[in-house]
Amino acid sequence: MRTTLTSKGQVTIPKHIRDALHLEPGCAIEFRINREGEIVLTRPGALREENGRFERLRGKADVKWRTDELMTLLRGDD
């Protein structure tokens, strides 16, 4: 699909692309130029989400473990 650049440097992203990337008004997007000179449009963090099934689980633990307690748990020492 072809679009026109406005005098303010704006373009309209076609609806099927907005829907595919789950873009909504106010959503942050990133533009990059790949090695072939093509422009790539992505949502920030979108590549991380797609690169691995464990990415959504990545984060910070809420449980505060002491080293000796954790080692006892892992080793099975009583």
Number of strands: 2
From the helix content, strand content and strand pairing, which structural class follows?
alpha+beta
Instruction: Write down the oligomeric state.
Output: single chain
Placed side by side, the strands forming the largest sheet appear as 1-2
End-to-end separation: 67 Å
User: Secondary-structure element order, as H and E?
Assistant: HEEHH
Largest sheet: 2 strands, antiparallel
Shape: elongated
Beta-strand proportion: 5-15%
Number of discrete helical segments: 3
Q: Could you report the average pLDDT, rounded to the nearest whole number?
A: 81
Describe this structure in words.
By secondary structure, the protein is α+β, with helices and mostly antiparallel strands. The chain is 27% helix and 10% strand. The chain contains three helices and two strands. Strands 1-2 form a two-stranded antiparallel sheet. A hairpin with a 5-residue loop joins β1 and β2 (39-42). The radius of gyration is 22 Å and the shape is elongated.
Could you name the key traits of this structure?
78 residues, elongated, alpha+beta, two-stranded antiparallel sheet, 27% helix
Q: What are the SSEs and their pairings?
A:
Layout: H1 15-20, E1 30-33, E2 39-42, H2 46-51, H3 67-75
Antiparallel strand pairs: 1-2
Outline of this structure?
By secondary structure, this protein is α+β, with helices and mostly antiparallel strands.
